[in-house]
Amino acid sequence: MTPSKESAVRHFYHQNMYRFDTAAQTYWHHITPGPDLPSLVGEHAADVAIVGAGFTGLSAALHLARDHGIQACVVDAGDLAWGASGRNAGFNTLPATKLGLDQLFDRWGTQAASDFLAAQHEGQLLVDEFCDSEGLQIRHGRGSYMVAHAPSAWRDLQEEFAVWRRYSRLPCRLLTADAFADEGHGGSEQFGALHIESGGGINPLAFAYGLARAALRHGAEIYTHSAVTALHKERSGHVLQTAQGRLRARHVVFATNAYPAQAQPAALDRRLLPAISNILVTAPLSDECWASEAYQTLSPAFDTRHLLNYYRRLPDNRLLFGARGDLTGSEQDGERMRQALRRALARKFPAFSDAPVEHYWRGLVSVTRSMVPAMGETEQGSGLWYAFGCFGNGVNTMPWMGRTLARQIAGSLPTPTEACPVFQGLPPKLPSGNWLQKLGLRLAYSRYALLDQCAR
Ligand SMILES: Cc1cc2nc3c(=O)[nH]c(=O)nc-3n(C[C@H](O)[C@H](O)[C@H](O)COP(=O)(O)OP(=O)(O)OC[C@H]3O[C@@H](n4cnc5c(N)ncnc54)[C@H](O)[C@@H]3O)c2cc1C
Q1: Which of 26, 54, 101, 131 is deepest in the core (most CB within 10 A)?
Q2: What residues does the FAD dependent oxidoreductase domain cover (predicted)?
Q3: Ligand 1 centroid – CA 253 distance (Å)
Q4: For residue range 431-443, what is the model confidence (pLDDT) as tens digits?
């Protein structure tokens, strides 16, 4: 038995953020019944072991089992979709990068950047097609709005529109403040909007449960409350250890994104930075309340801040409102972020300032030094696969990357979008030491906050 290079990943934030034994308390969990799944007990074997039952892992399992007849076994440390997949805002938007489109095209060239955008759109369609084929009634709104939060942001948005028109074939429209108030919303921070017409809003937990049910139906296995604590290599393949069981497989997919497994291969260490994103959901608001902000659309929206606010009207007349922030993950700082979200909500929509908040939760998104997502095999023939780094844009990206990994493992010929160099290879390592990485994040947040304050 040869031990593979293993690493013990130290948690980046307060332990609150990693309580795998505690069910996530989100609005989605409140409205979405989920399946009960067993833990991994005893000896198991599969062709492919998948660590993490979120969009990536579940999509990989579904496509392996359904499209390639390959036996897949998923294990998660918490409940099904315990991580970001069950906690996100459900925006099926694009693109998954912190680069502007012009930067993306400058850095990667026309072909690769166009393929990247095409892949992102394929991800959106994958979500739509899956919902259609499974009869999931979980989509709301058409496309998403990028809303200018200040007059200077409106000027920038007009340039952004020109860039979208130049580089992307996706349908998009620029709307003045009046035009957007007619179909979107009003409010004190509304100076016009850019409408990207693909995608929309989904219930992300219902989507994850749908992926899981389909994967199980096609013969995949899924085990919850089964944290992988060690990984080693034997002649026949990799062996994953959990508290009560062992799983042998020729291939292992690390689908843990911003919640890196304790026992991931050393090659994956320091490749991503987790950032905290926070969401509140109000009680249902009255028709008068919505009318006083001229708020009509169910399409997701986000503003033009660098530290953006994202929000959507939910079908049961609640408002979901979110933003990134906080460098600790502690309970006190969680409370501080909840208050900060309330203030931001009241600033944007004064009529909602007294709205009772019924749900508040947080989760981790992943960012990379390359500013784009990454997927592949740690080295050719290692049988150790990864996909991560979608910059809080995982609803379309991660199911697509899960499917792509499934196809790569099955030996399918890659399509041009799957072979797109933007995704290939591991991003450069981050500096060692969590404190240094946190310092980088702190500096980035401070810079963004300053830029946002300067926008007039
Ligand atoms: C608050 C918030 C809002 C967001 N909003 C949006 C949005 O509106 N639109 C959008 O596109 N994206 C959004 N995102 C990002 C999106 O949710 C993620 O990119 C996506 O869900 C990642 O999917 P995943 O399957 O790769 O990882 P995850 O869903 O995070 O799954 C990783 C899983 O790995 C498991 N795991 C970790 N360690 C182990 C171990 N040792 N053994 C076994 N299992 C382990 C975890 O329990 C977890 O379930 C948001 C994220 C957050 C946190």
Answers
A1: 54
A2: 47-407
A3: 15
A4: 888 888 888 889 9
